[in-house]
Amino acid sequence: MDCKAVIFDLDGVLVFTDKYHYKAWKKLADRLDIDFTEEDNDRLRGVSRAESLEIILEKYHGEPISEDVKEKYLEEKNEIYREYLGTMTRNDVDSAVRDNLNLLRNAGLRLAVGSSSKNTAYILERTELTDAFDAVADGTQITRSKPDPEVFLKAAKLLGEDPDNCLVVEDADAGIEAAKAAGMHTAAIGAAARSEAAEYNLTGIEELPVIIGIAQ
Ligand code: B16
Ligand code: MG
Q1: Could you give the residue numbers annotated as active site?
Q2: DSSP collapsed to 3 states, 119-130
Q3: pLDDT tens, position by position, 67-116
Q4: Cα separation of 213 and 216, whole Å?
Q5: 186 C-alpha to center of ligand 2: Å?
Q6: How far apart, in Å, are the Cα atoms of 57 and each of 16, 33, 65?
Q7: Quick one: which of 128, 104, 131 has its CA closest to 209?
Q8: Is the preceding omega at residue 147 within 30 degrees of 0, hence cis?
Q9: Which of 89, 172, 182, 192 could staple 152 via S-S, CB 3.0–4.6 A?
Q10: Distance 170 CA to ligand 2 centre (A)
Q11: CB neighbours of residue 47 within 10 Å
Q12: Domains along the chain?
């Protein structure tokens, strides 16, 4: 693999905000009398906020909900989610993540974030990760969410790199699909670690320098 840049998914790879997503969605689901489990929450990995609501509403059996009310639900959920994000600090980033980001950068690789989240800038700021990246592509800059390749193509463009020189690190099947559709190399980790669709399967971020060929 000729790898010049690494594009990291955020939630599930660099930080673990899925528990906050779950708690925030759960409050809404309980209010609407929807059964929403942690397994259901797994289906929301890498999926946009609006699409996540539609998945949760698959188990809703009440009166029809207008688009305006759905919009209100999305705002409410995000407010609760951001309260949790406000408690995050640099300690919410594993030292292996920070060390390996430094190692890759010092080896001359360009680094970017490619996330569906519209809260990406806030999460990077809270966890003091902003300066670790050369570019950030996120949910505020795209119209189509993963598995569409838009967010990763945007990240490559911001870095000025060809897609086939980029490696995407992802924890969601939708993200692996998106990276492949972008013509990029793929490394699956976390929830997607066993993905058969990915080119590389990682048990930890410290394996990245090895597969890229800058460490043994
Ligand atoms: P927000 P990622 C994704 O982040 C999450 O995995 C997904 O659960 C969430 O719905 C999505 O961001 C949108 O997040 O509500 O903050 O815009 O994995 O692409 O970094
Ligand atoms: Mg993710």
Answers
A1: 9, 11
A2: CHHHHHHHCCCH
A3: 999 999 999 999 999 999 999 999 999 999 999 999 999 999 999 999 99
A4: 7
A5: 13
A6: 24, 10, 10
A7: 104
A8: yes
A9: 182
A10: 6
A11: 19
A12: 5-16+92-212 (3.40.50.1000), 18-85 (1.10.150.240)
CB atoms under 10 Å from CB of 83, counted, come to 12
Query: Ligand 1 — pocket residues by CB below 6 A?
Result: 9-12, 21, 44-49, 52, 78, 115-119, 139, 172
Distance CA 158, CA 216 (A): 30
Spell out the residues 6+ positions from residue 83 whose beta carbon is closer than 8 angstroms to its own: none
E strand or H helix at 6: strand 5-8
Angle at 138 (CA atoms; ends 136, 144), nearest 5 degrees: 140
Cβ-count burial 103-136 (b if 16+ within 10 Å, e if not): bbeeeebbbbbbbbbebbeebbebbebeebbbbb
Ligand 1 atom nearest to 45, measured from its CA: 6
